[in-house]
Structures are given as C-alpha cells and as structure tokens.
Amino acid sequence: RDSETLLTTREVADALGVTPQTVAKWVFAGRLTPALRGPGLRGSMFFNPSDIDGAAIGMTSPETVAQMASA
After folding, report:
1. Mean pLDDT by groups of 10 residues along the chain of 71 residues
2. What stretches of 1-71 adopt beta strand conformation (E)?
3. Rounded to two decimals, what is the model's pTM?
4. Rounded Cα distance, 4 and 46, in Å
C-alpha cells in the first residue's frame, strides 16, 4: 500500500463517472472509506485506489480506477 498514490475525491468521482458530491454521499453512507480525511465536516478526503470497489458500486472496475491514478 505504501507505493499507492492516493486519489482525491475529484479523481475518484471522475474515474467512476459521478460528481464529487456523490462520492461524499457514498462515504457518508459507508459505501466508500477514505484512507485520509482532513479536519472538519468538509475536510478533504483521499482514497487508496485499491479501496475503490467500483464493481460493488456498479460503475467501473477497481483496475480502471487504479489505471486512472497512474495516468
């Protein structure tokens, strides 16, 4: 995991074809878990590519998300 580059909320949203607001809703609903979260209610969120389970969300495969991170 140490070699993974963390994805921003925007990068996750773009990879899954949704808005950053949808990503935030998924975090609130427990469908996604950020690897790091900034302080406060609206703190920035960062995600491990391997934690983005696109298949469960029904948008894309985790491999596609990982490819987006390395692009």
Report:
1. 77 90 91 89 87 57 54 46
2. 7-8, 36-37, 45-47
3. 0.66
4. 12
